[in-house]
Specification:
The complex is a heterodimer of chains A (about 300) and B (about 250). Helices cover about 60% and strands about 10% of the residues of chain A. Chain A contains nine helices and six strands, in the order αααααβββββαβααα. Classes of the chains: A mainly alpha (about 300), B alpha+beta (about 250). The complex binds protoporphyrin IX containing FE, iron/sulfur cluster (SF4) and FE2/S2 (inorganic) cluster. Protoporphyrin IX containing FE (HEM) binds next to α1, α3, α5 and α8 of chain A.
C-alpha cells in the first residue's frame, strides 16, 4: 500500500510536469513541443517500462486497498450506536477507500477520454498539421510534420496504420495521365515502374488539439468534433482533483508511517510536505484545464 | 468546590450473554454527585436497579485508579469518555451536565466478543502477549540483575513509556478498523528498545503480529485515533517501530 502509493505520487509529479507544458508553452511551437513529448512518452522503451510499473502499481494499490477495507469492515461486525470519530481523526483518513474509489472512477473516464482515443481505439486519429502562409508557400498550405523533422504537404498524402504517411500514387498517376494528354512529347516518369505508395515518414498524433478540444476549444479544423460537454468535463476534473487532494492529505505521510519512518525531528516535516503536496499537485493539475477552458 | 448533584439519562447496552441479541436500554438516574467517578455513578444505578428487583448492569473494573486496564466503556461516542489521557474509572461526573443523555456501550470488535452487557472478552490480548511479549530467562538458580546492564537513558525512557500500556483495548475500540496495532506496537517496543529484549526481537514481532492477525483485529491505516484516545498516551511512534521491526524481520527471515 505504502510503496505503491508513494510510487504513484512520483508518477503524479512526472505526469504533472508533462501536462504543465500545455499551458506554459504556447502557440505553434508549444503545440509541436507537446506532441513531440507525447510521441517520446509513447515510444521510449524506458518510459514504456515505467508505464507498466505504473499500471501494476495502480492495480496492486487498488486490490490491496479493497482487501484492507473489507478485512477492516469485518473486524467490527457491530458498530456503535453513538460514535464521534471526528474527535480523534481526520475525515480524509477515515475515508481513504471512498476517496480511492472516486479516484478510480475518474481514472476510468480519464483513460477513456484520452488514452483510449489516442492509443487503443481503431478510429482514425487526427495528426499534427500546421499551415504555411505566403510568402513561404504559394497559397496557404496544410502541412504534416514528421518524426524526422520533415514538413510534408497534406495534399497527395495518404495515412496508414494511424501515423504512417505515404505518397498517394494513384493521384500522381492521374496527374501524369493528364499531363501526357496535354504534352504528348514530354518525357514523364513511368508510374508502373515505381514503388506503389512510397513511404514519406511518420506523423505526430495531435494530442494537444485533443486536449484543447476536450476542454472547449474549437478544433474542428484539426479533425476533432466540438465538445458541448466541456464545462461538465472541467467540473468533473476539478472535483476529482479535490478528491485526490484529500486522498493525498492523509496518504502521503501515512505511507511513511506504514514503512516505519517516524522520527521526532522528521515526521512533522514529512507531514508538512505531505500537506503541501496534497494541495500543490492536484491544484496544479486542476489549474491546467481551467486555463485551457477560459482561453477558449 | 461545592458538590453538585445532577440528574441524568442513560442509554446502556444490555445483552444477556455472548449469543443473545442486545439492545440499548434507557435509564434515569437522579442525584448523581459531580464528585463521583463514572463507575461510582454506575454503582449507584446498579443499586437503584437492585432495589427495583431488576438485574444489575455488568461492567468491568478492578483498580479504579487507572492502572489495571480493566474498565472499558465507550461513552458518548468515545473510548473511556470525553476526557483524554484518562481511563473510564478516572472520569468524573463533573464532565457532564444536568439533564444530559449519556450513551454507554461496550468495546466493539470482532476480537473482543461481548460476554455480558458491557463486559467484553479481551483474552485476545493475552494470547498476543503469550506469543512473544516476554524475555526468555532461566529463572532457576542465580539470575542476573537487570540493572547491571547499562542502558542509554533515552532508550530506557522510551521503553518505559511503551510499557505504560495497560492493555485496556481502547485503541481497538476507537479504531475504525478495529486494529490492535497501538497495543502490539507498545508491547513490541517495550522489549525491542532494551538489550535484554533485542535478542528475541525478530521472532517476537513476527509471532505477535501473526497472533494479532489470527485473532481477527483489523489493519492499521494510520488514522491516529488510537493515540488520541489511549489513556496512557502511547505514541504512534511505537507502531512505526513495530512496522520497521517487522519489515526487517520479514526481509531477514529465510
Ligand atoms: C493517483 C492515484 C493514487 C495515489 C497517488 C494514491 C496514494 C496513496 C497513498 C500515498 C496512500 C498511503 C499508503 C499507506 O497508508 O501506507 C494510499 C492509501 C490508500 N489508497 Fe491510494 N492512491 C491513489 C489511488 C487510489 C485508488 C484508485 C484507490 C482505489 C480504491 C486507492 C485506495 C487507497 C486505500 C484504500 C488506501 C489505504 C487506506 C489508508 O491508508 O487509510 N487509492 N494511497
Ligand atoms: S495502547 Fe493505550 S489504548 Fe491501547 S491497550 Fe494500551 S493503554 Fe489501552
Ligand atoms: S479500573 Fe483499573 S484502570 Fe480503570
Amino acid at each position: 500500500m505504502a510503496l505503491t502509493g508513494l510510487f504513484l505520487c512520483t508518477f503524479l509529479v512526472g505526469h504533472l510536469a508533462g501536462n504543465l507544458q500545455l499551458v506554459f508553452s504556447t502557440g505553434e511551437e508549444g503545440k509541436r513541443a507537446f506532441n513531440e513529448y507525447a510521441y517520446f512518452m509513447s515510444h521510449n522503451p524506458a518510459i514504456k517500462l515505467l508505464s507498466y510499473v505504473t499500471y501494476i502499481s495502480i492495480l496492486f494499490h487498488i486490490v490491496d486497498g479493497f482487501m484492507l477495507t473489507i478485512q477492516n469492515k469485518k473486524a467490527r461486525p457491530v458498530g456503535y450506536a453513538y460514535n464521534k470519530p471526528g474527535a480523534n481523526s481526520s475525515i480524509a483518513s477515515r475515508n481513504m477507500a471512498v476517496l480511492g474509489t472516486l479516484i478510480l472512477v475518474f481514472l476510468a473516464t480519464h483513460m477513456a477520454n484520452f488514452w483510449w482515443k489516442a492509443k487503443v481505439s481503431s478510429e482514425k486519429f487526427p495528426l499534427h498539421t500546421y499551415t504555411v502562409y505566403p510568402p513561404m508557400a504559394e497559397r496557404p498550405t496544410e502541412m504534416y510534420y514528421t518524426v524526422k523533422g520533415d514538413a510534408i504537404p497534406k495534399e497527395g498524402v495518404i495515412v496508414k496504420e494511424g501515423t504512417k504517411l505515404f505518397i498517394d500514387s494513384k493521384m500522381f498517376e492521374q496527374q501524369i495521365a493528364v499531363m501526357k494528354q496535354m504534352n504528348p512529347g514530354q518525357q514523364l516518369p513511368d508510374m508502373s515502374q515505381m514503388n506503389k505508395n512510397p513511404e514519406l515518414g511518420e506523423g505526430y498524433k495531435d494530442l494537444h488539439s485533443l486536449v484543447f478540444a476536450f476542454f472547449g476549444h474549437d478544433k474542428s479544423k484539426q479533425g476533432f468534433p466540438k465538445n458541448d460537454m466541456a464545462l461538465a468535463g472541467l467540473i468533473f476534473y476539478v472535483i476529482s482533483m479535490l478528491v485526490l487532494g484529500f486522498h493525498l492529505w492523509h496518504g502521503f505521510s501515512s505511507a511513511f508511517q506504514s514503512l516505519g519512518v517516524n522520527h521526532a525531528a522528521y515526521t512533522p516535516w514529512i507531514k508538512k510536505i505531505g500537506y503541501g503536496f496534497a494541495i500543490l499537485v492536484p491544484g496544479l493539475f486542476a489549474l491546467i484545464p481551467i486555463v485551457i477552458f477560459i482561453t477558449k | 468546590m461545592a458538590t453538585k448533584f445532577i440528574n441524568i439519562n442513560l442509554k446502556i447496552w444490555r445483552q444477556k450473554n455472548a449469543n443473545a441479541k442486545g439492545s440499548l436500554e434507557s435509564y434515569k438516574l437522579d442525584k448523581v454527585s459531580t464528585d463521583s467517578s463514572f463507575l461510582e455513578m454506575l454503582d449507584q444505578l446498579n443499586e437503584q436497579l437492585i432495589n427495583e428487583q431488576k438485574e444489575s448492569i455488568a461492567f468491568d473494573h478492578d483498580c479504579r485508579e487507572g492502572i489495571c486496564g480493566m474498565c472499558s466503556l465507550y461513552i458518548n461516542g468515545r473510548a473511556h469518555g470525553p476526557d483524554t489521557g484518562t481511563t473510564t474509572c478516572q472520569l468524573h461526573m463533573r464532565k457532564f451536565n444536568d439533564g444530559d443523555t449519556i450513551y454507554v456501550e461496550p468495546w466493539r470488535s470482532r476480537a473482543f466478543p461481548i460476554i455480558k452487557d458491557l463486559v467484553v472478552d479481551r483474552s485476545a490480548f493475552d494470547r498476543i502477549q503469550q506469543a512473544g511479549g516476554f524475555v526468555s530467562v532461566n529463572t532457576s538458580g542465580r539470575t542476573m540483575d537487570a540493572n547491571a546492564i547499562p542502558i542509554p537513558k533515552a532508550d530506557a525512557d522510551k521503553a518505559f513509556e511503551a510499557a505504560a500500556c495497560i492493555g485496556c483495548g481502547a485503541c481497538v475500540a476507537t479504531c475504525k478498523n478495529g486494529s490492535a496495532l497501538l497495543f502490539v506496537g507498545a508491547k513490541v517496543s517495550q522489549y525491542a528498545l532494551l538489550p535484554q529484549g533485542k535478542v528475541e526481537a525478530q521472532e517476537r514481532v513476527v509471532n505477535m503480529v501473526r497472533q494479532m492477525d489470527e485473532e481477527g483485529f483489523g489493519n492499521c491505516t494510520n488514522t491516529g485515533a488510537c493515540e488520541i484516545e489511549c489513556p496512557k498516551g502511547i505514541s504512534l511512534e511505537n507502531i512505526a517501530r513495530m512496522n520497521r521491526e517487522f519489515l526487517f524481520a520479514a526481509a531477514k527471515s529465510e
